[in-house]
Design brief:
Layout lengths: L1 H7 L2 H66 L2 H8 L3 H19 L3 E5 L5 E4 L13 H9 L3 E6 L5 E11 L2 E11 L4 H8 L2 E7 L5 H11 L11 E6 L6 H9 L6 H4 L3 E5 L2 E11 L5 E10 L1 H130 L10
Antiparallel strand pairs: 1-2, 1-5, 3-4, 4-5, 6-7, 6-10, 8-9, 9-10
């Protein structure tokens, strides 16, 4: 019986194990939910930084464009400059414009200053005086010539440098005498964005918009490092960190184009020098609205990741403590319940045994009752027969009693006649004077 109870009522094993499995699944689900929530927070924060980067980037461009437009208006109204330009006196124009350029360069990071003639031929590069005489076919210069008003935008130069250019028609007394251009390279804007947002930034350009020789010459001229063969389809033209995470590098090696939405919506988690970053992409368009590359932003999420792991560890630890306390409580409680059930089951088995014995006695009693019932039926039949016999006897007895009554009546009549005769005889005897022979009572 004990073995049956042990096999039938192992509550701890039958309930505690499924509860433990359910608890583990619940804890695992909690960990997954915490991870997904924190990961979504990191993703949302990264996209917010991307939006801020984009806003700040174009805000810087707008401000720089407005500033350069304002300074070009001042230059346009400088009579000494216009006189030297109209006289084709390059030396005087350089001596007059060089102080202006140096001030703009030192104070506002202006890197390009051009004087173009009416045919867009470069008359003077103030930032590089030895190079002149070439025709400028850039989009902004063509737009300024075509529409006779200021044109501006980001343009990719042959040396692989991105430059914000503002080109303004130079009009004196209602007559076009040439074009003025100021430019600010992108590498002067990127550090400002890094400082404001506390992020690392890389600028990649599709190789189809560059030539290897021109790009290498640009690196040599600027004294910057670079590797044309680093990626099949892109080159890094500007960056705030010389180190590119391996995962990001592998991604850029596989990337073929930068103008699809899937690529722009992609976020990559990378690690570099013990830190964890989330990388996002912003499309980089030139003044002609052509997608020429990407601005790649890396935001440091090391603190958020550590906070996530600490939160998960705390959650698991608290869950483990709660689980152990619950398991101990359930173990003790289930033991009490199990003992109570075993006791109740023992009592139940005893009652069942007693009931089975009573049922057996009832069966035996029913069998005996059936036998007695059979005997009783036989006895009833006998009594019925006996009653019938008694009835017959009674009828016969009644007949005999009737005969006796009739006989008794006859005897009484006879007796009465005898008494009458005796009285008559006694009367006759008295009449004859004889004694009465009969005494009548």
């Amino acid at each position: 019986m004990d073995k049956k109870l042990d096999s039938a009522f192992k509550i701890r094993r039958r309930i505690l194990i499924p509860l433990t499995i359910a608890f583990i699944i619940l804890v695992f689900s909690g960990v997954v939910c915490l991870y997904l929530m924190q990961h979504q927070y990191i993703v949302d924060d990264t996209r917010l930084h991307l939006e801020r980067l984009q806003t700040l980037f174009y805000s810087e461009i707008t401000e720089d464009t407005s500033f350069m437009s304002y300074r070009l208006n001042e230059i346009q109204n400088n009579q000494a400059l216009s006189t030297a330009f109209l006289k084709n006196n390059r030396e005087d124009l350089l001596s007059l414009s060089l102080p202006i350029f140096n001030q703009l360069k030192n104070e506002y990071d202006i890197t390009h200053f051009y004087f173009l003639d009416k045919d867009r031929v470069c008359f003077l590069r103030v930032h590089n005086p030895l190079l002149y005489g070439d025709k400028i076919d850039r989009f902004t210069a063509v737009e300024a010539e075509k529409y006779k008003h200021q044109a501006n935008g980001m343009e990719l130069g042959p040396l692989g440098t991105f430059t914000l250019r503002v080109v303004k028609p130079w009009i004196i007394d209602g007559k076009l005498i040439g074009y003025l251009e100021l430019g600010k390279e992108l590498n002067s804007i990127i550090p400002e964005l890094k400082q404001i947002l506390d992020v690392e930034i890389f600028v990649s350009v599709n190789k189809k918009f560059l030539t290897k020789q021109g790009w290498l010459e640009g690196l040599e001229m600027l004294g910057l490092p670079g590797d044309w063969e680093q990626f099949p389809n892109f080159v890094i033209v500007d960056n705030t960190s010389l180190d590119i995470p391996e995962k990001l590098s592998n991604y850029l090696k596989r990337l073929k184009t930068c103008d699809d939405n899937k690529h722009l919506n992609n976020l990559i988690e990378v690690s570099l020098k013990g830190k964890i970053y989330m990388c996002g992409f912003l499309v980089l368009r030139d003044a002609s609205k052509v997608d020429v590359g990407d601005i790649i932003m890396m935001i440091d999420i090391t603190r958020e990741k550590k906070a996530l792991f600490s939160l998960i560890a705390s959650f698991v630890l608290v869950s483990l403590v709660v689980g152990i306390v619950f398991a101990l409580f359930f173990y003790v409680f289930s033991g009490l319940v199990q003992r109570g059930i075993i006791d109740a089951n023992s009592t139940l088995f005893m009652e069942i045994s007693e009931r089975m014995k009573i049922e057996q006695d009832l069966v035996s009693a029913n069998m005996r009752l059936s036998m007695h019932e059979k005997e009783l039926k036989e006895l009833v039949i006998k009594i019925t027969d006996l009653n019938k016999t008694m009835e017959d006897k009674d009828q016969e007895f009644m007949k005999k009693m009737q005969a006796l009554k009739e006989m008794n009546s006859m005897m009484l009549d006879r007796e009465n006649r005898m008494i009458e005769l005796k009285r008559e005889i006694n009367a006759l005897s008295r009449e004859l004077g004889r004694p009465e022979p009969y005494v009548i009572h």
